[in-house]
Amino acid sequence: MNYRSVIKVLGFLLLVTSACLVLPAIISLAYGESDWPYFLASSGVGLLLGGGSLLFLRGAPDLRVREGFAVVAFGWLCVGLLGALPFWLSGQIPSFTDAAFESISGFTTTGASILTDIESRSHGTLFWRAMTHWLGGMGIVLLALAILPLLGVGGMQLFRAEVPGPVAERLTPRIRETAKILWGVYFLLTVAEILALIIAGMGPFDAICHSFATMATGGFSNNNSSVGGYNSAPIEWVLIVFMFLAGANFSLHYLALKGKWKLYFRDEEFKFYGTIVLVTTSLIVAALLPIHFYPHWGETVRQSLFQVVSIITTTGFGTADYLLWPPISHALLLILMGVGGCAGSTGGGIKVMRVLILLKHAKLELKKMLHPRGVFTLWFNNRAISSSLQTNVLGFFLLFMMVYIGGVLILTLGGRDLLTSVGATAATLGNIGPGLGEVGPASNYSALFNWEKWLLLFFMIVGRLELFTVLVLFLPGAWRKS
Fold this sequence. Notes:
By secondary structure, the protein is mainly α. Helices cover 64% and strands 1% of the residues. The protein has helices at 3-20, 22-30, 36-56, 65-89, 96-107, 123-138, 140-147, 155-162, 175-200, 204-215, 233-246, 250-257, 263-266, 268-288, 297-312, 327-339, 352-370, 387-413, 418-429, 450-464, 468-471, and strands at residues 379-380, 383-384. Strand 1 (379-380) and strand 2 form a beta hairpin. The chain starts with a helix and ends in an 11-residue tail after the last helix.
């Protein structure tokens, strides 16, 4: 492990975060609020730490695979702790544990909150909460790759460790250009959503914050009752569309902008993603209509579709307390928490591509039982899937389930009821936000013990970085000199 290179790149990430902290300070000043000095003080801390690492550690960083994993894993932790400082110093969130929970939940795009009265918070605080989502959505490391030439050295290691999904697909031969393209598409969709929300009747400030949270599939809202507080069908439909887009592969969006929009309908993962949404929504609508839970069928469809898209994309916005729905709805939404968005999206979870490969693999094994001497190939998008990728997907799923079951057991041993333990672990490991039980859509995470919050913080980072990136650092070999 080249510690000097790791520390130097972490310094770059702290500098990027420090620059971003100036924006909420400006927002706070513009609204005549008194917490702007705390944002600038936090920015100064990041500038001091980041600048110091660059000043004392000269030379371009030498990044190999293990250094890439270390930078991404520790980068999320360092950036999250720096982002917690303005919450804590200003007194908006008096407990540092709670401030760290809110910040890391933002950067990992989990959207799990400990705030009980969101609407009383300052505009600077609300803007910074939303901005942590937006930065974390496409990845603070990808941002650094796009704007800092020095990180071009060993950039593929960072790209592979950061981009969600089983395959880190480059759109151009140069990593830096790929990062710029992805951030360009991300920015364009964010601007489009801001305009759409304003047209739908949302105020400009709230439109910006909710667009940041939507495109990052984060879920922080400026209302205590989330999106349901607006009680607006046009706003909900806009969010449904953009949440769905955020849960799809951003490479497809880029190709669609180049005129290749038909690729949406040729991509197996995207078609399976859309099928899951339609089938699940139909089943929940079928469960709600007979009991007349909503007065009109149109509202039933909208509410069902909103929760389904919000959960599968791991956004976590809410317009209804789905715990009041029939039990079949709880089961379906819990399954969607594990599925997550598409590979190459800002969504969390196992990823639709992995689920589809697992199903194809299971079908192939059944065929082998009928034809023991047959030779079969697993295909995805008209390409043969290598045995190494199949092994990677199977290993990821096994590891995901082991961490998930371990989290549930730890929380239940600590005294939490089973429903809350299952919901909290699924919601944080899948980067969803609202869970079940005491952390359901009508509640939050404020009542948990501090040790439970730090455990769930760990799950947020592990889930955001797709398990392998973080857990590989627990192997002794990752730290040996080579």
